[in-house]
Amino acid sequence: MTDLTLEEREGLPDALRVLVEALPRGTWEAHPNFSPLTRFWLDRHLMFRDVLGQLTQGSRDFLDGNVAPDRYGHETARMAQFFLQQLHSHHDIEDHHYFPVLEGLDDRLGRGFALLDADHKALDGHIDALAKGTNAMLKGLSGPDPRKGAGDLERQLGAFDLFLDRHLTDEEDLVVPVILTYAPEIH
Ligand SMILES: [Fe+2]
Ligand SMILES: [Fe+2]
Predict the structure, then answer these.
(1) Average pLDDT rounded to a whole number, residues 48-67
(2) Distance from the CA of 134 to the center of ligand 2, in angstroms?
(3) How confident is the model at residue 2 (pLDDT cuts 50, 70, 90)?
(4) Number of structural domains the chain divides into
(5) Which domain holds residue 125?
(6) Exposed, middle or buried by CB within 10 Å (0-12, 13-18, 19+), for 167?
(7) Dist. CA 60 → ligand 1 center (Å)
(8) Does the residue 3 lie in any domain?
(9) SS3 state of residue 142
(10) Are the CB atoms for 16 and 25 separated by under 8 Å?
């Protein structure tokens, strides 16, 4: 059986793509059931991608010698704290507010919501690890080899980016077509 864990899968299995095949990405915004809340939710995903990109660029700039250690440390600490807190609360809202409304709407997709729930649990572990990696980098900045922590963090951010991209893409492919098809009441 195909491994559907966040770290191993390469996309949604065909059985969970039935709605998105009928409503592919390019058609979403023009659909009459595309709501401001759906726009807001997709924009949150864009924001997470953007901040993660800025974090990665920050480590690269430091490793390339283009930014001073104290500025790198300060900016990374600020952005990482924002990113990790916001991502955690985004998952919380999805788990307790959005998904309970959505998961009963289409019997064919029940397994998809279990998959998203498992993703959130997996991402919790990666969020903890990224917080630790960030702290290790910050501590290392005042030590004998500041580049070591920054290099480790850059690699960790690269892996996180793959997992986050996999989750956001698959989540959007599952959730948006459900919303467009059934127009549930979500506030
Ligand atoms: Fe999610
Ligand atoms: Fe999400």
Answers:
(1) 98
(2) 23
(3) confident
(4) 1
(5) 14-182
(6) buried
(7) 27
(8) no
(9) coil
(10) no
Q: Is residue 64 situated within a structural domain?
A: yes
CA dist., res. 115 & res. 101, Å (int)? 16
In the reported structure, the alpha carbon of residue 150 is separated from the centroid of ligand 1 by a whole-number distance in angstroms of 28
Identify whether 9 is part of a domain. Answer: no
Using pLDDT thresholds of 50, 70 and 90, give the confidence band for residue 186.
Answer: confident
Q: Is residue 5 part of a domain?
A: no
Rounded CA separation 56/186 (Å): 34
SS3 content of the chain, % helix, strand, coil (to 5): 75, 0, 25
Q: What is the pLDDT of residues 141-181, one digit of tens each?
A: 999 999 999 999 999 999 999 999 999 999 999 999 999 99
Distance 147 CA to ligand 1 centre (A): 33
Q: What is the pTM of this model?
A: 0.96
Distance (angstroms) between ligand 1 centre and the Cα of 139 equals: 31
Whole-number average pLDDT of the chain: 96
